[in-house]
Design brief:
It is built from 7 helices and 4 strands; from the N terminus they run H-H-H-H-E-H-H-E-E-E-H. The chain is of the alpha+beta class. The longest helix is centred in the C-terminal third of the chain and has 16 residues. It is elongated. Bound molecules: FE2/S2 (inorganic) cluster.
Length: about 160
C-alpha cells in the first residue's frame, strides 16, 4: 500500500471499536476511501481484531460488494436495475465488455478502465444509464458505448482526470 493508503486504513481502524461485529463496516469504510481492499489492508484489519487474515478474506469475498483490485482511471458503472435492464442495459453492458475486453469487476491491463454493474441508481427516466466517475450518460445504446469510450480516451490523452472522484 502507498503511504496515503496506509494512513487511510489507520484512520478507519482508529475510529472503530475493536469488536468483531464491526468487521463489515470497517471493510466498507476502507473500500470507500481506497476504492478497493488491498491485501495489506485485510492483514491490518485481521491484526486489529486479533483474527486470522483468512477469516477476514473469507468474509470479504463472501459479499460481492467488495473489490480486491484498484479501480481504473475511468470507473464505468452500468445500471442493471429493472428499468435500465428492460430498456437494453444488458446489451450496453455487453458492448462495454466487448469493447474493453474485460468482464464486470475487472480492470483493463493498462488500469484505465474498470467495469461494474449496479442496481437502480435513481434516474430511471433516463434508462438505460451509465455512470463514469460520477458523470451520468443517459439513454445509452450499444452504439453509444463506442462514443463514450472515444470521449474518455480523448479526455485521457488531454490529461483530463478531473472527473475522477
Ligand atoms: S433502473 Fe437504472 S436508474 Fe433506475
Amino acid at each position: 500500500m502507498s503511504k496515503e493508503e496506509v494512513e487511510a486504513v489507520e484512520e478507519v481502524l482508529e475510529s472503530c471499536p475493536r469488536e468483531r461485529r464491526h468487521l463489515i463496516r470497517i471493510l466498507q469504510a476502507i473500500q470507500e476511501k481506497l476504492g478497493y481492499l488491498p491485501e495489506d489492508a485485510l492483514r491490518e484489519v485481521a491484526l486489529f481484531f486479533g483474527i486470522s487474515p483468512a477469516e477476514v478474506y473469507g468474509v470479504a469475498t463472501f459479499y460481492n460488494q467488495f473489490r480486491f483490485v484498484p479501480l481504473g482511471k475511468f470507473h464505468i458503472v452500468v445500471c442493471m436495475g429493472t428499468a435500465c435492464h428492460s430498456m437494453g442495459g444488458a446489451l450496453v453492458l455487453d458492448a462495454f465488455q466487448r469493447e474493453l475486453g474485460i468482464k464486470v469487476g475487472e480492470v483493463t491491463p493498462d488500469r484505465k478502465y474498470s467495469l461494474e454493474r449496479v442496481g437502480c441508481i435513481g434516474c430511471c427516466t433516463q434508462a438505460p444509464v451509465v455512470v463514469v466517475n460520477g458523470r451520468i450518460f443517459p439513454k445509452m445504446t450499444p452504439y453509444k458505448v463506442e462514443e463514450v469510450l472515444a470521449k474518455l480516451k480523448a479526455e485521457d490523452e488531454l490529461g483530463g482526470d478531473k472527473e475522477q472522484g
